[in-house]
Structures are given as structure tokens and as C-alpha cells.
From TrEMBL:
The keyword Acyltransferase does not apply. This is DUF2269 family protein. The chain crosses the membrane at residues 6-32, 44-68, 80-100, 129-150, 156-176. InterPro entries: DUF2269_transmembrane. Keywords: Membrane, Transmembrane, Transmembrane helix. The lineage of its organism: Bacteria, Bacillati, Chloroflexota, Chloroflexia, Chloroflexales. Pfam families: DUF2269.
Length: 194
């Protein structure tokens, strides 16, 4: 048995794990935006923190196995591989934004007494950049999976990722709507907050 099938297994398994972690992040965002109390926010962030070590391993194994398969078999001449790798770097930058913003919320509520959410926490939870980063991660993952499964030429790969980015940005537009009027006060809750 060659080493290549093992790399495929590691790559696919870690990509599934990464996708599951990011879906949990998306559902966590929905739950945070519905939270009414400090203790609810702490519980949601605690659940999300449990998935972070597994997601971190997947973040490393997915590209390492992919690069190893590229070197062993595919080669760098395939445009979709380069686009997927570049998209993965963009995905990681969105992950840094998400992790930083959620970490700030966690530090804020850590020592707070149980009770209704203060305005300062509400504003951080409803930060449109946090929501945009989460939506972009999900959209980019879908785009990268599309590249992995269809293996298009360079132009097709670029179009697929551009479509993914546009979809992620479009999904996040409601998060930014009316933001200037809300910055002075508590953000409005609406159906677009979910």
C-alpha cells in the first residue's frame, strides 16, 4: 500500500473536521446573537472553546496533507490547487478575526456577574465584522470543497472562489445594515441577526 491513500484519508478527514468546527462556529454566532444573559454567553463560548483544539489540528493537517499530495502526485501546475491554497490562507485570516473577537467577548464576560447582558457585550456580539468573518469562512470552505471535488482549470477555480466570497459577503450584508445609527446605542435585534 502506498502512502498516498493515507494522505487522502488524512486530508479528507481533517477537511470534514474543519468544516464541522466552522459550522459549530456559525451556530455559535446565531446562539450568541440570541443570548439575553451573561451566563448564556459564557456557556456558548465555553462550548465553542471545546472544539478549538480539534479544529486547530484540522487547520494544520488539511493543508499539510494537501501539499504532500500535490508534491507526490498532482504537481503545482494545476491551477485549482494554487487557488485552493490561497483561499485557505484567506480562510485562516478570517479565523484570526473570529478568534480575536470571540476571545475579547469571553474576557469581557468572564468576571461579570450573572444577569442581563450589558450594552458593551451586546455591541461586541453584534459586531458585523465578527459575523462577516464567520460567514466568509463557511463560504470559503464551500468554495474550497468545490475545487477539491471538481478540480477545475485556473479560470474556473478563480471564478468559484470569487462566487464563494461574493456569497459570503452577501450573506453578511444584513449585519452591516443600519450600523451607523446603532453605534451610539444598543443594536436592534431582528430576524437578520440570526
Amino acid at each position: 500500500m502506498s502512502f498516498y491513500p493515507i494522505l487522502v484519508f488524512v486530508h479528507v478527514t481533517s477537511a470534514i473536521t474543519l468544516s464541522a468546527g466552522n459550522l459549530l462556529s456559525l451556530f455559535g454566532l446565531f446562539a450568541l446573537r440570541r443570548a439575553q444573559r451573561v451566563e448564556q454567553v459564557r456557556a456558548i463560548l465555553g462550548l465553542l472553546a471545546l472544539s478549538e483544539p480539534i479544529s486547530a489540528i484540522a487547520v494544520v493537517l488539511t493543508p499539510v496533507a494537501g501539499i504532500a499530495m500535490t508534491v507526490m502526485s498532482w504537481g503545482w501546475r494545476n491551477g485549482w490547487i494554487n487557488v485552493a491554497l490561497g483561499s485557505f490562507v484567506l480562510l485562516l485570516s478570517m479565523g484570526v478575526i473570529t478568534g480575536t473577537r470571540r476571545g475579547a467577548i469571553a474576557r469581557l464576560v468572564k468576571e461579570m456577574p450573572d444577569g442581563p447582558l450589558p450594552q458593551s457585550v451586546e455591541q461586541r456580539i453584534h459586531d458585523p465584522l465578527l459575523g462577516t468573518a464567520v460567514y466568509m469562512i463557511v463560504a470559503l470552505l464551500l468554495g474550497i470543497v468545490f475545487l477539491m471535488t471538481t478540480k477545475p482549470v485556473l479560470e474556473g477555480a478563480l471564478i468559484a472562489i470569487v462566487v464563494s466570497v461574493v456569497l459570503g459577503a452577501a450573506a453578511s450584508l444584513p449585519l452591516w445594515r443600519g450600523r451607523t445609527g446603532e453605534e451610539a446605542g444598543s443594536p436592534k435585534r431582528s430576524s437578520s441577526d440570526v
